Amino acid sequence: MITSKKLADYYLQTLRQSVLTDSPAKPQGSVDIEPEDFFAGKIPSQSVGKFFGSHTHPKKQTDHTLSVLIMPIIRNNTRNPAPMVIPAKISSDGELTPIEHNFPWIPRKLLSPVLEDSEQNQGQPPIADLAQFNTQIEVNPFSTDDWNTFAVQSAELFEKLTHQSLVNFHFNKNHSSDDNETNKFRIVLGEQNSGMSFSIQRTYEKIIDTKKNLPLFSSMVPNSSHKSQHVLTAQQLSEEHVNHLGQMNPEHGLTDTQRQALANYTALKPGQVLAISGPPGTGKTSLLQSVIATEWVKSAVMDEYPKVCVASSTNNQAVTNIISSFTHAASLPEDSQIIWPATKIYKNFTDKQAMFADHWLPGNKTFGLYLVSPEKYKSTSGIDAKITAREHQYLNNLSTPESLAENTKAFLSNCQQLFPELNASVEVYRDELHQALMDVVDDIQLILDGDKRDFDGQVKKEESLLVQIKEHLHQQQTLFATNKQLLESWYDYDHKNTTILDYLPVIGKKQAKKRRQNFCELHGLDEKVNLVAQFRRSRKAVPKAQDKYAQQKEKLNRLYQAKGEYTDAIFRNHIVKGEPLDAQIDTNMRYLAFMLSTHYWEARWLLEQEDLPQKETSQITKKRDWQIISMLMPCIVGTFYQVDNFFKEDSKRPMFNDIDLLVVDEAGQVSPEIALASFALAKKALVVGDTKQIQPIWALEKNIDRVNMRHLINFSEDDIETIENDGFSVASGDLMSATQHQSSFIANENNRQSIMLKEHFRCLPDIVDYFNKMSYDNQLIPKRSTPKGSSGWSLPQFGYATLLGKAKTKNGSRYNEREAQAIARWIRENKTRIESMDHGHKTRLKDTIAIVTPFKEQSNTIKRELQKEGLKDEELTCGTIHALQGAERKVIIFSPVYDSDKTEFFFDRNTNMLNVAVSRAKDSFLYFGNVDILPVKESLPSGQLARKLFAHKSNQIVGVSSFQPDEIIANLTGAKAHDDWLIRQLSRAQERVDISAPYISNLVLQDQAKPVLVAMESCINRGVSVVVHPSAEMNTEKNKLQNFQSGINTLSSLGVTIKMTHRRIHSKQILIDHHILADGSFNWLSAKRNKEDKFYNIDTTMVIDNANLAEQFALDVFRDTPQKQA
């Protein structure tokens, strides 16, 4: 059975093992030293220069030290892994020093338990036990004060675990060796990553030990009793909309699916988690801002301390995207106007909207506080509101006596401008702002409630009912009067007609009966009628009817009043009938509520500072400290490594259940063991992500993970299956998948689908169509329309440039230098036009275009080429897909690197990589590389991409060449230049002419290219081989097939050799006599030659005359031995 304690232990063991990695022990880039140098901590000077003479390693520090890893290398047995890895710092003078929180380790694959799968390559048997290793690390902490002690402790640890000396170790214990034979120690650049997860591990340890109830963490246990997924009805969603109180963005309201997601969030209770699927471009940031804004406004309305809201993810790129969005949130665009409510309080606000929409405390200009590690502190220079676990300078600066005086003065000055009649204190202005906020929130709820009601229909119905009740009252009153009169008449008649005979027993009864009969006959009554009872009933009925009438009249008056209040609120807040109501409330009233709350909280913070004791430095050790911070910055942002590091009462006790809301962004990238410890610190969680984008970097291999689950945690086989299937595995899972299984609310009970954001605003429709079909079952709703034809320079939504080049490998990563050079050259040549793509408005190049590649080494190569082209200062984003996660550009260039389709493409292993790459492009996705390698099968992501790239002839980017300018002997532009060149070359060819013909058109050949056919025939008659290489895969459409086959017949009749290829060959090349190579965009045997054709003067081709280059870059099909057709 999976319990919360066992789950925590599983993740703790994983984090402990994740640092026990193999380390590179290759001689390249390393230094070997003798054991005595290792223990002395002094590296020979001639060896030190090998490290500090290099300028390529990213870990080089400004204090002239480098992080290194040291390993004993078994002599005469270099194929085996290093038995121990020892982290250290090396200085420029060769001194070794320990690193705080770092310790030596034995690689996990050398520790038992080991892989059980007999089909796996077992490698070396284990040399030590994992549990014993963990115990030794815990019981005997390492001293990092001096190197000698650290080195000796490392050797002692190794000997305790393996029963062999570190210096004389050999994998074969029975190995006979000379006592003088010792292992050398190899030093390579690198570092241990244990420090990153140190705080997370401590949290898991406390989760295991604590007796405290942790509802949110417990709700994340797979198949837990806490799991109960519901779908909110339309009625419930509508009722939740009134709880949406704040909006940071004054420009745009929420979309329908964003609003549905927010309604599900407001229905969330403590101890519950909500998963929101957020595909690219669907407004995840807007949703997160609305959630935080709503919580902030709600706390202000309740006059409570603000909720502590933390947003986190697994990497700094994701969290800096969040912090950036909160830094610039709520700012009012220059052309925007706040629509003030038509009430007296806002009479002085009209010309002060910029001031109102800004922060009033000079020391703080953000809504987010960044929790950052000391190592990242300096590198985040663009973010001011940041603190480390030990350094709170930003917060300290806010609360100095001088700053408080300045902030108070600025706050009062702004208040006096808006409320000149008050001229009051911070307390009075706080109350005034709070009342204004209450009025806005009351109006929001009044309008939303009123909008659900058909006031006119209700009034008509209730007025009609009032008329009926009034008529009924009149009838009851009339009946009562009639019955009263009748009873009185009877009494009078009976009295007048009574005689002395009535006093006789027998005669009296007959006389009375006779009088009653006569009275009833006289008044037309039934003799059995009870006039007294009838009178009493009607007397009681009248007050009841009067009460019912009064109640209905009161009900109608209340309805009149509600309608009047609703109408007044609509008028007061300038709501336009017929326009989307919620969108108007978002951009007007909810934004106003958020800004009123901002200034209310500023007042609360100033007053709170008066009650706090003055301290030189701030201390954050309890929830109240975070609540006070949240008065100015409602969103605390940091990676999970920092969240667990910051939220603790002291160095040992985590702040369990103290975070009111934990928001996780990019959850599809987060491995579960990194995140779930933070769930123990929170009351509820909102998890947003996409399992179709970047996957986590998993800590362990699947087989190692299963061994751990079986033998270290004692999970059953059913438990293991659940953990793996539900996304909780550290070797294959992700937080998004896990929370989708545990989410309290879902969108559909039939398929258990999580709530999904669907409206896509980033990309043009054709771009959306690619990843929408490939990854999202066509559920996305494109909101941008295809722009009409532009008179200026533009790029296709999908474009390609055919580039040649050879892929090579360096540092285990691929690169293609020719491809990189062509990309950099094209950007430099088109820089001005790219910068003017935004309707002629000049934008920075780095904000318009970015380059994505699957390989790190290609990224480095492109960066070097950009620098050579003079584009270093442009600071273009260039990297793997991780560099652009969460970002966007108008133009994305994709550099595939591959030069052959003989191996599986890295970007075809799943849909994730191309989904991310393509979805970054707002207007244009450009493929710069070898297009002939793209597969025919559309089941593959690259095959679907090829379909988009080749959908239109205009998609080809002309004028792009793999060749350097000094290698090109001719530039051909337009159909006439191409024909003239080809005819000339055919007349000069001596041996062989190869022509790549993706398309062949008999109509073009016969009507427009007769001179080319004549030249071909003449060339063949001279004994020169003319070989045409058509692509069968490019000519499968029925309406083109006959024209294609007729063209082949025409060429064959001239003696042209036809060498059909069944690959998709899109390159247009001509190779003449093995040394002249033409490569470009011109379709030699199908391009129209009439001047009216729009491509007549567009296609270009570059020509080189170099046998070596021709051999290197000519198409592979040209190398095949031609076989003449009969």
UniProtKB/TrEMBL annotation:
<feature type="domain" description="Phospholipase D-like">
    <location>
        <begin position="982"/>
        <end position="1113"/>
    </location>
</feature>
<dbReference type="Pfam" id="PF13091">
    <property type="entry name" value="PLDc_2"/>
</dbReference>
<keyword id="KW-0378">Hydrolase</keyword>
<feature type="domain" description="DNA2/NAM7 helicase helicase">
    <location>
        <begin position="254"/>
        <end position="697"/>
    </location>
</feature>
<dbReference type="InterPro" id="IPR047187">
    <property type="entry name" value="SF1_C_Upf1"/>
</dbReference>
<comment type="similarity">
    <text>Belongs to the DNA2/NAM7 helicase family.</text>
</comment>
<dbReference type="InterPro" id="IPR050534">
    <property type="entry name" value="Coronavir_polyprotein_1ab"/>
</dbReference>
<keyword id="KW-0347">Helicase</keyword>
<dbReference type="GO" id="GO:0005524">
    <property type="term" value="F:ATP binding"/>
</dbReference>
<dbReference type="InterPro" id="IPR041679">
    <property type="entry name" value="DNA2/NAM7-like_C"/>
</dbReference>
<dbReference type="InterPro" id="IPR027417">
    <property type="entry name" value="P-loop_NTPase"/>
</dbReference>
<protein>
    <submittedName>
        <fullName>DNA helicase</fullName>
    </submittedName>
</protein>
<keyword id="KW-0067">ATP-binding</keyword>
<dbReference type="InterPro" id="IPR041677">
    <property type="entry name" value="DNA2/NAM7_AAA_11"/>
</dbReference>
<dbReference type="GO" id="GO:0004386">
    <property type="term" value="F:helicase activity"/>
</dbReference>
<feature type="domain" description="DNA2/NAM7 helicase-like C-terminal">
    <location>
        <begin position="749"/>
        <end position="931"/>
    </location>
</feature>
<dbReference type="Pfam" id="PF13086">
    <property type="entry name" value="AAA_11"/>
</dbReference>
<keyword id="KW-0547">Nucleotide-binding</keyword>
<dbReference type="GO" id="GO:0016787">
    <property type="term" value="F:hydrolase activity"/>
</dbReference>
<dbReference type="InterPro" id="IPR025202">
    <property type="entry name" value="PLD-like_dom"/>
</dbReference>
<dbReference type="Pfam" id="PF13087">
    <property type="entry name" value="AAA_12"/>
</dbReference>
